[in-house]
């Protein structure tokens, strides 16, 4: 058995003071930094960049060659934050307060499209649908691997979010533990289901119990006009600035017609509506300050897909309390270059914001859904 080494083996340390875990992946410091930074304006990016490790046919840092893909492409991250099982056994704690937990899993990269210069807001709706299909496939594949307890799909967009490569892509980390934030959210959903009453006309969670998010989104749909926090709605989903939003233009996307616990539960129509709202939200984001809008985006749903019975029907279990939703957490505050920083009070005490969520929602409602680069191109064509 391999010897456990904190600099080579990913592990989780527990903070008994705050009840939060920290994932330590020191082996990743060996990964190369390409020195690229994402521009705030993508209009000058080439369609193909010979130096990009995600463009079709190019060689990645680990020496592997990308296929010449035409839609989405998935590969295992050459510098994964967690490593596949089996990992070494962690040594006994030197003190009961200094606990360490081994963690295993895998990290996949999902490239959105072969074009280097595009991004979610400038991809076509059918491209975004292909991405949703790919996320669903990876969630299903990774979430049914032995020992995997949680799958996190996320996108870091923009140099501001630490993303070094502008080529459109997201990541999927699958883990042998359920991390801190989804654990808290699931506990809140369970607690609500066991204590709250269902109001008439509001969709319910499993077994007719109240769902915190079904109830919340139902209320938001009834708040009138400028007092509201809705940004857009479609046939099955809403995008809103949540009442408790922390980031200036934070958005939550969630289904409102029925309780849906994961991507695999979406009908064809719902999947189409999901892609539609992601496409429209990200267009509004880019148009807000006429820039490629940076954000951290993540999908919260059942930790892993449900078990299927002999007929392929999903078997309901306690995790179905999860209500599928997407968080968009963008750092920009006032312009393409003025961002929110986490200052003393926020790091030491609690989150703080200036702009109200209602004001942010109003500004996002006022944005066009015709991408500003498209508008600029039209102007150039007309004036030529
Ligand atoms: Zn590229
Ligand atoms: Zn629900
Ligand atoms: Zn969430």
Automatic annotation (TrEMBL):
Q: Gene3D superfamilies attached here?
A: HIT-like (3.30.428.10)
Q: Where does Fe cation bind?
A: 185, 300, 325, 327
Please state the pathway this protein functions in, per its UniProt record.
Answer: Carbohydrate metabolism; galactose metabolism
Question: Residue limits of the Galactose-1-phosphate uridyl transferase N-terminal domain?
Answer: 4-179
Question: Does the record's keyword annotation contain Iron?
Answer: yes
For this protein, what is any one GO molecular function term? zinc ion binding
Annotated positions binding Zn(2+): 52, 55, 116, 167
* Record-level GO cellular component terms: cytoplasm
Q: Where does UDP-alpha-D-glucose bind?
A: 28-31, 61, 77-78, 156, 162-164, 171, 340-341, 345-346, 352
Q: Which cofactor does it need?
A: Fe cation; Zn(2+)
Give the cofactor note text.
Binds 1 Fe cation per subunit.
Tell me the Pfam families matching this sequence.
GalP_UDP_tr_C, GalP_UDP_transf
Give the EC class as a word: transferase
One biological process term from GO is:
galactose catabolic process via UDP-galactose, Leloir pathway
Catalysed reaction(s)?
Answer: alpha-D-galactose 1-phosphate + UDP-alpha-D-glucose = alpha-D-glucose 1-phosphate + UDP-alpha-D-galactose
Q: Its domain of life?
A: Eukaryota
Arranged from A to Z, the UniProt key words for this protein are: Carbohydrate metabolism, Galactose metabolism, Iron, Metal-binding, Nucleotidyltransferase, Transferase, Zinc
Catalytic center residues: 169 (tele-ump-histidine intermediate)
Q: What is its EC number?
A: 2.7.7.12
Q: Where is the Galactose-1-phosphate uridyl transferase C-terminal domain?
A: 209-374
Looking up PROSITE patterns in the UniProt record yields:
GAL_P_UDP_TRANSF_I
Q: How does it assemble?
A: Homodimer.
The record's similarity note reads: Belongs to the galactose-1-phosphate uridylyltransferase type 1 family.
Q: This protein is called what?
A: Galactose-1-phosphate uridylyltransferase
């Amino acid at each position: 058995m391999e010897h456990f080494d904190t600099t080579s083996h990913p592990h989780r340390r527990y903070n008994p003071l705050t009840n939060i875990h920290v994932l330590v992946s020191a082996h990743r410091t060996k990964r190369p930094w390409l020195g690229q930074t994402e521009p705030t304006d993508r209009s000058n990016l080439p369609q193909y960049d010979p130096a990009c490790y995600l463009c079709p046919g190019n060689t990645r840092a680990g020496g592997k060659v990308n296929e010449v893909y035409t839609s989405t492409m998935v590969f295992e991250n050459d510098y994964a934050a967690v490593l596949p099982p089996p990992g070494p056994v962690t040594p006994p704690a030197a003190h009961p307060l200094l606990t360490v937990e081994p963690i295993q899993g895998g990290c996949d990269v999902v490239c959105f499209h072969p074009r280097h210069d595009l991004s979610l807001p400038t991809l076509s709706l059918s491209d975004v649908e292909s991405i949703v299909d790919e996320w669903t496939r990876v969630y299903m594949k990774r979430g049914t691997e032995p020992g995997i307890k949680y799958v996190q799909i996320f996108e870091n967009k923009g140099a501001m979010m630490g993303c070094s490569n502008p080529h459109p892509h997201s990541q999927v980390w699958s883990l042998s533990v359920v991390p801190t934030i989804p654990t808290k959210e699931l506990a809140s959903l369970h607690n609500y289901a066991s204590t709250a009453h269902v109001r008439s006309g509001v969709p319910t969670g499993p077994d007719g119990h109240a769902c915190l998010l079904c109830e919340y989104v139902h209320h938001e749909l009834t708040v009138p006009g400028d007092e509201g926090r809705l940004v857009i709605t479609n046939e099955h989903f809403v995008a809103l600035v949540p009442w408790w939003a922390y980031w200036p233009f934070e958005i939550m996307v969630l289904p409102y017609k029925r309780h849906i616990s994961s991507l695999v539960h979406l009908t064809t129509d719902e999947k189409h509506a999901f892609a539609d709202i992601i496409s429209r939200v990200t267009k509004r984001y880019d148009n807000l300050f006429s820039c490629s809008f940076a954000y951290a985006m993540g999908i919260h749903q059942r930790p892993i897909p449900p078990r299927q019975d002999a007929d392929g029907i999903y078997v309901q279990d306690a995790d179905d309390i999860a209500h599928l939703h997407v968080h968009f957490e963008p750092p920009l505050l006032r312009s393409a270059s003025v961002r929110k920083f986490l200052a003393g009070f926020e790091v030491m005490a609690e989150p703080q914001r200036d702009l109200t969520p209602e004001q942010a929602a109003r500004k996002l409602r006022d944005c066009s859904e015709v991408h500003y680069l498209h508008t600029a191109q039209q102007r150039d064509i007309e004036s030529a």
